[in-house]
Amino acid sequence: MDTLLANDLTLGYGDQTIIDSLNISIPKGKVTVLIGGNGCGKSTLLRSLARLLKPKSGQVVLDSEDISKLRTKEVAKKMSILPQSPTTPEGLTVYQLVKQGRYPYQGITKRWSDGDEKAVNHALEDTNLMDLRERTVDSLSGGQRQRAWIAMTLAQNTDTLLLDEPTTYLDMTHQIEILDLLFDLNQNQGRTVVMVLHDINLACRYADHIIAVKNKTVFAQGRPEDVITCDLMQNVFEMRCDVREDPLFGTPMCIPHGKGRCLIKAAQQEAKSQSIG
């Protein structure tokens, strides 16, 4: 069963077309990762899936309904999005930020309730932020700040999470921390996770489904083991590499070709041996 579908989707800004006649299906209850070169349209596609960008043509279908025909709060109760590098107003506490995830459930006749408070506390617990709830977001480390934003999307209590490069600007430790958190949410709560990642090896490690975007449409989609090949890396990223099995996880692992210290040392040794000969 699919949570999200894009049918003949064409996206762009003004006269510029970014995505052209694209068709994808996002499997329900799985982790899907969008990959592709810089500027290929991954973020634009994610914005359209969240109904933040109106298609030029085609449609996005959420739970068998055309998303354009749903009310904004209806969409927000089914799907939450974390944009790339979100900014936080100065002085806002973690608790105040996470509370904003309950916006779709508020209204003229609907006030803050015990259910809202419970959802916020669950989100803080799931992201291990309960002890930091009174800290200001701008005082947190990069990994903690990203967890706070993820907690806000969790408080929204949707089955589907969309995340645009959630590990950008994070060191390796915090990248794994965030991806492990999202993996646990998928495994333990059945959340559908859709995210844009640049690190192909991490994408292969965490994804059930990979969608590679190239030339304004889908180049390939499927299981990492079926999709990530030397040919795909050459075609999508214009990069020569070897694809081997990750010794820890058994998933595809890309080893890019190129220059490096060991290669230079080998060349120097070869030149030395030739001069001696």
UniProtKB/TrEMBL annotation:
Primary localization class, coarse: membrane
Keyword presence, Transferase: no
PROSITE patterns the UniProt entry points to: ABC_TRANSPORTER_1, ABC_TRANSPORTER_2
Annotated ABC transporter domain residues: 4-240
Cellular localisation: Cell membrane
Any single Pfam family the record assigns to this protein: ABC_tran
Keywords: ATP-binding, Cell membrane, Ion transport, Iron, Iron transport, Membrane, Nucleotide-binding, Transport
Membrane topology field: Peripheral membrane protein
Signal peptide: none
GO molecular function terms noted in the UniProt entry: ATP binding
Name of the protein this chain belongs to: ABC transporter ATP-binding protein
Source organism of this protein record: Halobacillus salinarum
Lineage of the organism: Bacteria, Bacillati, Bacillota, Bacilli, Bacillales
